[in-house]
Amino acid sequence: MTRTELTKRAALVAGALVCMALAAGVALLATDIARWRDALPAGDVSYRVSPDDSDLWGTSELIPFGVARKLLDVQDDVEFRRAMRAMRLARLDDETVSDPKLALLRNEAQARLEAIASDDGDPVRRSRAANLLGALGLARLPSETQDRSGLIQSIISNLRLAIGLDPTNGEAKYNLELAFQSSSGIELSEQAGGVNPTPGGSGVKGAGAGDPGSGY
After folding, report:
1. Cα separation, 175 vs 163, whole angstroms
2. Which distant-in-sequence residues (6+ apart) come within 8 Å of 156 by Cβ?
3. What is the pLDDT of residues 120-162, one digit of tens each?
4. CATH number reported for the structural domain that contains residue 173 in this entry
5. What's the CA angle centered on 56, arms 54 and 59, to 5 degrees?
6. 19 and 107, same domain (yes or no)
7. Closest residue by Cα to residue 90 from 65, 72, 112, 107
8. Is the residue at 86 inside a domain?
9. What integer pLDDT is reported at residue 124 of this predicted model?
10. What is the mean pLDDT of the segment spanning 151-176?
11. E-only strand ranges, the chain
């Protein structure tokens, strides 16, 4: 066998190996994509049953560096669900302020929501996060003893941001009304605004901390 024939044979073998490697990679990627497509709805179901679980909305990946997750662009969805979970576990209806676990959960919820409100590419999701930041501030307001004025200004700013990002956000409008009612007797700066810029709202009640996977 001549050197040319050997070279051609080696090239054919190398090409075949490359094709096999590519096929294997595509198969692994397809598996990872299928896992992620199942992970979100499965995590939503588990969340409703046991929100305390810490491994919700995740899956193992065969290809490293989160290739499938990035291709599907699901990280923003996962982060929002985890922020909603932190809000639920923080029990905003509990006025207890001495429980360090609740304090940590509320701080976690705030940090997650702030990241979404400032960086998420979806304005509707940013609006929901800003509204939830306002709701979180409203829950903290009754126990705030030092800078109530600063807190109420932050609440109003977040809720006005939520409405600016999504004018159909009825929960933000409702919460903004609550914020101005709660600000009675608290001196506000001109920047925060002294009147409700969106009166009426849509009558949606509550802080808007709905279940992940149920309409956002």
Report:
1. 11
2. 134, 176, 179, 180, 183, 188, 192, 193
3. 889 999 999 999 999 999 988 887 777 888 999 999 999 999 9
4. 1.25.40.10
5. 115
6. no
7. 107
8. no
9. 95
10. 95
11. none
